[in-house]
């Protein structure tokens, strides 16, 4: 089976994340996409707004009716910071003989040289790079990559801003159960 790991803050998960994963499934014949919420990205200075348990719970809600997707708390249980190579090592142990993919946005693809043990990742993974708008990724020598297109207007930063200002979130940006839970959390005075 082809297993795709999709790491990210998911702060919060939105329908754009699922649209990207769906395109990857269609283009690459993936059997499963595993969403891995990140404890703390070494390349991001800003902490997440939502706590780890909340992000994981919201992911489970968003993926409940998606048979090819699952949420995995692996990164949340590992020592910080979140190194992708450690997740890949663990998944190689869990799924021997499976081909592993890593789904990422074009922004992270451009930073791949800054990832810890990027050479190891290039040997062990095929990267699926989501390109959006005019942000076109370039091939990298010695790195297997598949480029997928797709547009979705949702962004986690915009959703956080709208929630904080108690403004409406555009239709189609969030799974209804996720939106309801986020509204409940923010009515109660913010996150955990």
Could you outline the blueprint of secondary structure elements for this entry?
Elements lengths: L1 E7 L6 H14 L3 E6 L14 H12 L5 E3 L2 H4 L6 H11 L4 E7 H5 L7 H7 L1 E6 L13 E5 L6 H9 L11 H12 L5
Parallel strand pairs: 1-2, 1-4, 2-3, 4-5, 5-6
Structural key phrases:
192 residues; alpha/beta; 6-stranded parallel β-sheet
Number of beta strands: 6
- The succession of helices and strands, N to C, reads EHEHEHHEHHEEHH
Sheet of most strands: 6 strands, parallel
| Number of H/I helices | 8
The parts where pLDDT drops under 50 for at least 5 residues are none
Distance between the termini: 38 Å
Shape: globular
The SS-based structural class is alpha/beta
Strand content: 15-25%
Structural description of this entry:
With 192 residues, this protein is of the alpha/beta class. The chain has eight helices and six strands. The chain has a six-stranded parallel β-sheet with strand order 3-2-1-4-5-6, with helices on both faces.
Question: What is the compact description of this entry?
Answer:
This protein is α/β, with parallel strands linked by helices and 192 residues long. It contains eight helices and six strands, in the order E-H-E-H-E-H-H-E-H-H-E-E-H-H.
């Amino acid at each position: 089976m082809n297993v795709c790991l999709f790491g990210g803050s998911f702060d919060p998960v939105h329908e754009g994340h699922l649209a990207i994963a769906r395109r990857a499934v269609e283009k690459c014949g993936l059997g499963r996409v595993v969403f891995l919420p990140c404890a703390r990205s070494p390349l991001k200075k800003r902490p997440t707004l939502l706590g780890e348990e909340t992000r994981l719970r919201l992911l489970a809600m968003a993926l409940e009716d998606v048979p090819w997707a699952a949420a995995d708390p692996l990164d949340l249980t590992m020592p910080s910071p979140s190194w992708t190579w450690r997740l890949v090592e663990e998944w190689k142990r869990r799924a021997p003989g499976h081909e592993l993919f890593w789904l990422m946005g074009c922004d992270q693809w451009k930073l791949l040289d800054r990832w810890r043990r990027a050479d190891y990742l290039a040997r062990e993974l095929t990267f699926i790079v989501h390109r959006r708008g005019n942000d076109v990724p370039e091939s990298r020598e010695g790195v297997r990559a598949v480029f997928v297109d797709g547009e979705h207007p949702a962004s986690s930063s915009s959703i956080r801003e709208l929630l904080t200002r108690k403004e409406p979130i555009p239709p189609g940006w969030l799974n209804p159960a996720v939106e309801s839970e986020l509204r409940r959390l923010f009515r109660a005075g913010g996150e955990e």
